[in-house]
Specification:
There is one protein chain. This protein has a domain of about 160 residues. The N and C termini lie far apart (about 65 Å). It has about 450 residues and is of the alpha+beta class. It is built from nine helices and 14 strands.
Length: about 450
């Protein structure tokens, strides 16, 4: 090879990074993602992927991924919004959220358009960690450019799927099911005969879902619902408890009530190994209309299980379970334990932290998408001219809804014939971290919760 040609190649390699950095700039203090579809195609389908490039600028680091695929995602948020959510699929596995999270090909780009705070989904990740759930989709805020046009603040988040550091069951044989209804069902799905509930089969994948596996899933669902409906449903061995991981189920349900999410019982994920008897529940997800952000019905002082909505079939099961003294006591005990561990303070601190993380990008977002205008008919029709007013609404919900739930749960427990334990304010030297775990080294520097107050140890 000629020396001049070698020099030319070396110069091209040396300047590839800076040229890319000049072409793709970071807009605010969160990463900026540039997606360019092949031939500038519009993304018009949530079933068919199209090819694109994905470039993320994060400080001095620029990640460029060729042969990426993108399509639409969601239901109402896809069909009824100009700021659309997407699903991206990389050619090779990527770690987009850090080493503690999944290395995967599939990721979601959430628009959070119906949520004027844009932090409800990210807040729920913090809640899931505090509760101790095995998996909750995490969050990374970005500014998004699509084919050269700025599209606003988005959130990179985990795809709910069977995968290491997501739903961890066997990829070939493990079960991942989604409770659905007429609006969200998708093939393959099973409709139960006892309660008429539709269950989307998310795993095993279509090519691995043999007839024997499908029959096994159907038989388990029928047995579970039969146990719920039986006269022995309160029995720990003959009733529904023989089919659920009790800790996971209570954590999921209490978490769902805490989020005040109109869609919490519209789409429920559940999973287990094929040879395992008991089902696990979670994660909490899809919270843009959560925390009382729906015009359909307010959950400020209302329980999920008693909304009486036609398309929330799992309500029937939960209403029956509330007649079981064990279930009522388990829900009461778990909620009170979380409150004692500093739940409200944790959520307040998380809201403040997320507000700070999104402050610059939200200002850019609302230059394109008006902050005081309706997006969906079903979002809460309460609009402000400034971002912090929406943050104040979110905080007000948390501080009102949690005490309400404590009272509502206690009333349900009393109805079963059990007298609820009185919750009293106690002075305690016990420290908890911001995940609600008891601190073993109380002299260590950091931020803690003590007697329901946030304290800092220097």
């Amino acid at each position: 090879m000629k020396p001049k040609l070698i020099l030319s190649i070396l110069l091209t390699i040396a300047w590839a990074g800076p040229v890319l950095a000049q072409q793709y700039q970071q807009l605010t203090d969160v990463p900026t993602v540039y997606i360019e579809t092949e031939n500038g195609q519009n993304i018009t389908s949530k079933e068919e992927y199209i090819i694109c490039t994905f470039t993320m600028v994060d400080g001095d680091n620029t990640l460029r991924l060729e042969n990426t695929q993108i399509r639409g995602r969601g239901n109402s948020s896809w069909w009824n919004s100009d700021k659309k959510p997407y699903r991206v699929k990389f050619d090779k596995k990527q770690t987009l959220l850090g080493e503690d999270f999944a290395k995967a090909k599939s990721w979601t780009l959430l628009a959070n358009h119906g949520d004027k705070t844009m932090i409800r989904n990210a807040l729920t990740y913090q809640l899931g960690r505090f509760i101790g759930m095995k998996f909750c989709p995490a969050a990374k805020f970005i500014d998004l450019y699509l084919n050269g046009k700025y599209r606003g603040t988005y959130q990179i988040s985990d795809q709910v799927q069977v995968h290491k550091k997501r739903v961890e069951v066997d990829e070939d044989n493990g079960w991942l099911l989604e409770v659905a209804n007429e609006n969200s069902r998708e093939e393959p799905y099973i409709t139960s005969t006892r309660y008429g509930i539709m269950y989307n089969i998310k795993n095993p994948d279509d090519e691995l879902l043999t007839m024997d596996k499908r029959i096994a899933i159907g038989q388990w669902l029928e047995a579970f619902e039969k146990a719920v409906a039986s006269n022995d449903y309160k029995d720990s061995e003959k009733g529904y408890r023989a089919y659920i991981d009790e800790t996971d189920f209570i954590n999921w349900y209490v978490g769902a009530e805490l989020t005040g999410n109109i869609d919490a019982l519209y789409s429920i994920y559940m999973y287990k190994e094929a040879d395992e008897q008991k089902m696990h529940f979670g994660p909490l997800w899809d919270l843009d209309l959560g925390y009382d952000n729906s015009s359909e019905k307010s959950l400020l002082r209302q329980m999920e299980a008693y909304l009486g909505l036609w398309n929330r079939p799992f309500e029937k099961i939960l209403q029956r379970l509330w007649l079981d003294p064990w279930f009522a006591k388990a829900c009461n005990d778990r909620l009170n334990a979380l409150v004692e561990a500093g739940l409200q303070q944790h959520l307040m601190a998380s809201i403040d932290s997320l507000r700070g993380a999104i402050w610059q990008t939200q200002a850019q977002n609302f230059k394109v998408w008006p902050i005081n205008q309706q997006v969906y008919d079903w979002e809460k029709h309460k609009y402000h001219n400034d971002y912090d007013s929406y943050i104040s609404d979110l905080k007000a919900f948390v501080n009102t809804h949690i005490p309400y739930l404590q009272e509502a749960f206690a009333q349900k427990l009393s109805a079963t014939g059990i007298t609820p334990a009185k919750t009293t304010e106690k002075n305690s030297s016990t420290l908890y971290d911001l995940q609600g775990r008891k601190v073993q080294q109380p002299n260590k520097k950091g931020i803690y919760i003590q007697n329901r107050q946030i304290i800092t140890k220097q």
